[in-house]
Amino acid sequence: MKQNLKIYNTLARRKEDFEPIKPPHVGMYVCGPTVYGDAHLGHARPAITFDLVFRYLQYIGYKVRYVRNITDVGHLVDDADAGEDKIGKKARLEQLEPMEIVQYYTNRYHNDMDKLNVLRPSIEPHASGHIIEQIEMAKKIMENGYAYEKNGSVYFDVSKYDESNDYGVLSGRKVDEMLSATRELEGQEEKNNPADFALWKKASTEHIMRWPSPWSDGFPGWHIECSVMGAKYLGEQFDIHGGGMDLLFPHHESEIAQSVAANGKQPVKYWMHNNMITLNGQKMGKSLGNAVSLEDFFEGSQKLIEKPYSPMTIRFFILQAHYRSTLDFSNEALQAAEKGIKRLFQAMETLDKLPASDKSTVNIEELRGKCFETMNDDFNSPGLIAQLFDGVKIINSVKEKKESLTESDITELKSTYNDFVFDVLGLKQEETKDDNKLVEDLMQTILGIRQNARTNKDYATSDLIRDNLAKIHIQIKDTKDGAEWSFLD
Ligand code: ZN
Questions:
Q1: How far is the CA of 416 from the centre of ligand 1 (A)?
Q2: CATH code for residues 279-424
Q3: Cα 307 to ligand 1 centre (Å)
Q4: How many Cα neighbours within 13 Å face the side chain of 122?
């Protein structure tokens, strides 16, 4: 199946522009969170998107080395080259060590991702653990003539690079337009050109997070961490680089420029970008996005959230949209997802008890083939979910004896659901807070014991069970297949 895998490549804007990924090894790098606050819905989308990619690639037999970093230095407020470090600012406000902030929010991020059943990456490097490599890469870029030093800071020379390369290859932007559009920000005056970006910044006296370098006591620019950690763990050229669409420019555009300037080659075969989450059709603003944490969703503890939504509801909601499409948040959409996942798991329970026939009237192999086909088409998770719901119709028809399946086809159908629902989509059964399922399971046990007694003509026991249940307002009705129970009003 893997030879048919097609990935949409942001860089090429076509699926087929690069040679297919060669089995068995895949290197995948995804930009991870900047850990200065709780994870919100906007963090869940890239995490779940690339978890789906990670899971599916492994499922079809690739050996995947998945690197997802923790950004704990160099990401400044406003995503620009001036201003406070996001971590440093939080540390100042909370009067904590920056690394206490990093540890605290990294733990909370892991906890949220575990709840969402997002697998941990193979390697999770921290930017602050790779300062030496970042200095080395900046030196190399300078030696190659694509960076310059000003007052202890080092900047990437965008127009110099653009003479012989294309700064804009990923985003489709043109350097000339960037120059006229870039607004002058405070602290940017020392750049030759407003489009240039920092590889190293000299720290002001009040800046807490600082390291020695050949140029100044300072800290690395935001973009260079990913170029460095990608190359260190996956090589100078690797297969997949992912992240949210909001990172496409300038972060990923600049990563390409840095790697080409340092190593003379394109660093990544496939660039993949998940689209944004919108609210009533509008891009979910940063302030709003940050206001509703994943915990708020799980607890229902925010005015925008009508009720608690379980982690699997959130996961299913995200997987119901293709990663390249925008996803509109609303309570209705989440409640629809909640119903959808319930229907899927109910069908899987029915599937477990499906009676076998000596011939099949439905083609299960074809359904399984379509599941692979949709996933091979650029990880089309909504397509896969639609196939699984087509299968739900088959399961219900077999249950109602309108269609029939052989023993081996039922086994095939079960493994299709197990593989695609649990392993690929990464969904799992959640303990429900209400006790309905427990009551149902207990009642089935009791009815089983009573049925046994009746078979053994032990009517004293079967009547005792019936009478005692009646005392707690549970009624038993014998049917030709066994017995049914209900609560007496
Ligand atoms: Zn990054």
A1: 35
A2: 1.10.730
A3: 34
A4: 17
C-alpha 78/C-alpha 218 separation (Å) is 19
CB 201 within 8 A of CB 156: no
Please tell me the distance from the alpha carbon of residue 486 to that of residue 489, in angstroms, as a whole number: 9
CA of 127 to the centre of ligand 1 (A): 10
Ligand 1 centre distance from Cα of residue 254 (Å): 10
> DSSP of 447-468, one letter per residue?
HHHHHHHHHTT-HHHHHHHHHH
What is the model's pTM?
0.86
In this predicted structure, the answer to whether residue 434 has a pLDDT above a threshold of 70 is no
Q: What's the gap in Å between 226 CA and the centre of ligand 1?
A: 5
In the chain, where are the structural domains located? 25-274, 279-424, 434-487
Compute the distance from residue 238 Cα to the ligand 1 centre, in Å. 15
Domain 25-274 has CATH 3.20.20.60: no
What pLDDT digit, counting tens, does each position of 361-406 carry?
999 999 999 999 999 999 999 999 999 999 999 999 999 999 999 9
Tokens for 451, please give them: 């049925």
Ligand 1 is an ion; its neighbours by CB within 5 Å are 31, 226
> Residue 30 Cα, ligand 1 centroid: separation in angstroms?
7
How many A from CA of 31 to the centre of ligand 1?
4
pLDDT digits (tens, 9 = 90+) for 18-30: 566 777 899 999 9
Q: How far apart are CA 295 and CA 264, in angstroms?
A: 44
